[in-house]
Structures are given as structure tokens and as C-alpha cells.
């Protein structure tokens, strides 16, 4: 009697594996589709950019330099790139901090180097001299010149080198006294190559040097606060003479010269 063979049953586990592959493929396609829809939707874009703390540059210029504008991709914003771009493009910026708030909100906090004086360039444009030695144009902010001294005569190479040092010295002057200084003139002499002449809004003329300025502040403050307007000399020795006595001395000198010629 001949034995009959039973045909093998279909491989059910193989069908299950194919079903799982199809399921995972469908899930993957759904994820890709959702991702495409998400990144093309307004929720993935920058909705509002706020720059805080800047005074020497407009928000528009900061936005152009960094690419942080409404409608730009939110998730491609790199904090480090934004910081590096702003500091390299605008040398008057001291530090930058970026805060991102999903969805679509970006805040950029800008800290600038402090302005300690102002000056006019060859074209008559107002420049702010900052504590780090750099300068920045203030063509649209001329009103603030009243709050700081104006630098004049700082044009040659030696003067420019001293100006960077002077800005660091001025930051040590109390705000009330600095606001009283209206002009600082580069006035070198044979004995003092860094001599300066300062004029105050309260009527004083001050002669000193860039190097000596920080150590002479106490004397300067004392005279300005207690004496009538006059000339203050703060070099190797300190001296003060009122304009009244200065005019009298000049008159006496003229009288002596006149008498000697007779």
C-alpha cells in the first residue's frame, strides 16, 4: 500500500513579518508626512523677534545681520551663531544672550559697552567713544551728546593711542562729575606728551594728563564743588586759581610790562 504525503502548511509567521513591515512603513510615512506639514506650517516659523538693550543700533539692523526675522525657521536658530554674528558685526556690543520661547518667540538681550565721551569726525558726524576704545556713529542720537564730554583734537596717531586709554580712565569718574565735563582737548606739551585740557559746564578749566587723571579725581571734585569757577592745574603739583584772580594777575602783568617800556 502506497503512503500518501500531506502537503506542507503555508508559513504563517512569514505573513506576520510582512504585515509588521507594512505597518511600520505606514507609520514611517505618516511621521514623515506630519513632519513635512509641521515644518511648512506657521507654528514652525519665528512669529516675533524682540531685541532688548541696544541703543547704538536698530532692531532692524540686528535682524538683518542675524537672519532673525518673522517667518524665518524657528528650529534652525543657533544661539551661538547669533551671539557670534552680533559681536563680530557690531564691535560696540559687549555681550549677547538669546532666549527662545516655543512657539515662535525669540528674545535677544544685547549689552553694549558704555559711552564715556563723544567726538566729531571730519564730516561733522557725531561719534560715541566707548569704554573699550571703539567708536560708533550717533548720527540719529545727537541729543545725548549733552550728557558726556566732547573730544576734540584727537586726530594724530599718538592721540588715537591715548584716546583708547582715556576712555578707560573716564569710566572711573563719577557720573555727576563726568556729566559736568563738556569738552576734553588733546593738548600735549614738551614735558607732558599726554596732557589734556578739560572744560566743565560749571565754568572750570582743568589741565592734567591722561595718566594722572584717576589719581587727581579727589582734588578735582573738591575744587569744583567748593570753589568759584577758575583754572585747575593737576600735574606734578596741584593748583587752583579763580578767573577773578587770574584776570587780576594778567592785568598786573600788563601793567608791569607797560611800566618797563616807559
Automatic annotation (TrEMBL):
Residue intervals of the POTRA domain: 44-113
Origin superkingdom: Bacteria
One Pfam match: POTRA_1
Keyword terms: Cell cycle, Cell division, Cell membrane, Membrane, Transmembrane, Transmembrane helix
Localization (cell): Membrane
Protein name per Swiss-Prot or TrEMBL: FtsQ-type POTRA domain-containing protein
Taxonomic lineage from the root: Bacteria, Bacillati, Bacillota, Bacilli, Bacillales
Protein's UniProt keywords contain Membrane: yes
Amino acid at each position: 500500500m502506497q503512503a500518501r504525503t500531506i502537503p506542507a502548511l503555508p508559513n504563517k509567521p512569514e505573513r506576520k513579518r510582512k504585515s509588521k513591515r507594512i505597518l511600520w512603513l505606514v507609520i514611517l510615512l505618516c511621521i514623515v508626512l506630519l513632519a513635512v506639514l509641521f515644518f511648512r506650517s506657521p507654528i514652525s516659523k519665528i512669529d516675533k523677534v524682540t531685541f532688548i538693550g541696544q541703543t547704538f543700533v536698530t532692531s532692524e539692523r540686528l535682524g538683518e545681520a542675524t537672519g532673525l526675522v518673522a517667518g524665518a525657521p524657528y528650529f534652525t536658530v543657533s544661539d551661538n551663531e547669533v551671539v557670534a554674528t552680533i559681536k563680530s558685526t557690531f564691535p560696540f556690543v559687549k555681550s549677547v544672550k538669546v532666549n527662545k520661547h516655543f512657539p515662535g518667540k525669540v528674545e535677544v538681550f544685547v549689552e553694549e559697552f558704555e559711552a564715556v565721551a563723544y567726538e566729531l569726525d571730519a564730516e561733522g558726524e557725531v561719534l560715541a567713544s566707548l569704554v573699550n576704545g571703539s567708536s560708533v556713529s550717533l548720527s540719529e542720537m545727537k541729543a545725548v551728546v549733552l550728557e558726556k564730554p566732547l573730544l576734540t583734537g584727537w586726530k594724530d596717531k599718538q592721540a588715537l593711542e591715548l584716546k583708547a586709554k582715556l576712555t578707560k580712565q573716564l569710566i572711573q569718574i563719577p557720573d555727576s562729575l563726568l556729566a559736568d565735563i563738556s569738552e576734553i582737548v588733546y593738548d600735549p606739551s614738551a614735558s607732558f606728551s599726554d596732557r589734556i585740557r578739560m572744560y566743565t559746564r560749571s565754568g572750570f578749566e582743568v589741565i592734567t594728563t591722561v595718566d594722572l587723571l584717576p589719581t587727581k579725581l579727589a582734588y578735582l571734585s573738591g575744587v569744583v564743588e567748593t570753589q568759584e569757577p577758575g583754572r585747575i592745574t593737576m600735574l606734578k603739583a596741584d593748583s587752583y586759581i579763580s578767573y577773578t584772580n587770574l584776570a587780576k594777575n594778567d592785568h598786573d602783568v600788563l601793567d608791569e610790562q607797560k611800566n618797563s617800556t616807559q
